[in-house]
Amino acid sequence: MRTQFRTYYNRSGHRMPFNSTSEPQPNAAQASSGPLIHAQNVSRHYRLGDSIIPAVNDISLEIRTGEFVALLGSSGSGKSTFLNLLAGLDRPTSGAIHVRGRNLAAIDPMELARYRRDTVGMVFQSFNLLPRMTLEENVELPLRLAEVERAERAARVRSALDHVRLGARSRHRPAELSGGEQQRGAIARALVNRPTILFADEPTGNLDSVNGEQILQLLREIQSNLGMTIIMVTHERPLAERFATRIVTLGDGHLKSDTPNAAAELQPVIDETRR
Ligand code: ADP
Ligand code: MG
């Protein structure tokens, strides 16, 4: 197995050099059959002084490749905590989360870091683009961290920006972009490493309704055209019901409902004049 020296940023944004070997191939049978993600009796309890907060409480859920899952629930119901567990940003207190045969609750920190780098794309409510960099430099950053070669980087950045229809804005800095454009840029950055799963935590939370709708349309297109699996936290039920293929509701850390949503619509291109 090839060993490479790579650089990684931890959750506080510090540069973390580490040795990494190329990704171990998951068991082929497990990878091709069964769900992409299988969460079994997952709990995450926070300790706060003497009290325990059961933020996620005994949730079991299977997610198949290509689904667009919306996680709904009131504030404090455990949506972000659960999303972060599935994205490998945090570990459960108990239970198992199998992704293509690997249990995120049991693998070592290096392997979990590789899972985040190679399998996961993340989009947040606050777009988190670096202000001093241009849009294309922001989108290129994950490729630099993964040590992708320069020519390949340029081609992938162009393709990612084209996917979100921001090719013409590549030299702009974040402050020169609208909120909707910044979020589309953040989606391009999340896509550029070709993740298997795109996670989004309230991606429309800082946007007006027109831009929020465009972001959901875009996510739906990405799911459909690129075959990507999308797991999105939102509190906007009407938007979720229009675009997500499955609606999962949490309440007090528990799974309250889980329903397929056949009504999800696939709409044509974003109208650039409506920004
Ligand atoms: P949601 O995203 O649905 O609003 P969260 O997952 O952020 O909910 O939070 C679920 C519960 O866990 C809340 O009661 C919240 O206060 C608590 N919580 C979240 N993060 C922490 C933490 N780091 N320490 C202690 N309690 C936390
Ligand atoms: Mg949240």
Kindly name the structural category: alpha/beta
User: Percent of residues in helical segments?
Assistant: 25-40%
Mean pLDDT: 87
Strand content: 25-35%
| Continuous helix count | 8
Poorly predicted runs: 1-31, 269-275
The CATH architecture of one domain is: 3-Layer(aba) Sandwich
Q: Which CATH class of one domain is shown?
A: Alpha Beta
CATH homologous group name of one domain: P-loop containing nucleotide triphosphate hydrolases
Number of DSSP strands?
12
Rg, rounded, reads: 18 Å
Rough shape?
globular
Order of strands across the widest beta sheet?
A: 8-9-10-5-11-12
Instruction: Write the CATH fold name of one domain.
Output: Rossmann fold
What hetero molecules are bound to the protein chains?
adenosine-5'-diphosphate, magnesium ion
**Biggest sheet descriptor:** 6 strands, mixed
What does this structure look like?
The protein has 275 residues and is an alpha/beta fold. The protein has a domain at 36-128 and 196-266: Rossmann fold (3-Layer(aba) Sandwich). 32% of the residues lie in helices and 29% in strands. It has 8 helices and 12 strands. The strands form 3 sheets. It has a 6-stranded mixed sheet with strand order 8-9-10-5-11-12, with helices on both faces. Strands 4-3-6-7 form a 4-stranded antiparallel sheet, with helices on one face. A two-stranded antiparallel sheet has the order 1-2. Helix 4 (135-145) crosses helix 5, helix 4 (135-145) packs parallel to helix 6 and helix 6 (179-191) packs parallel to helix 7. The longest helix has 18 residues, at 209-226. The site of magnesium ion has 3 residues, from helix 2.
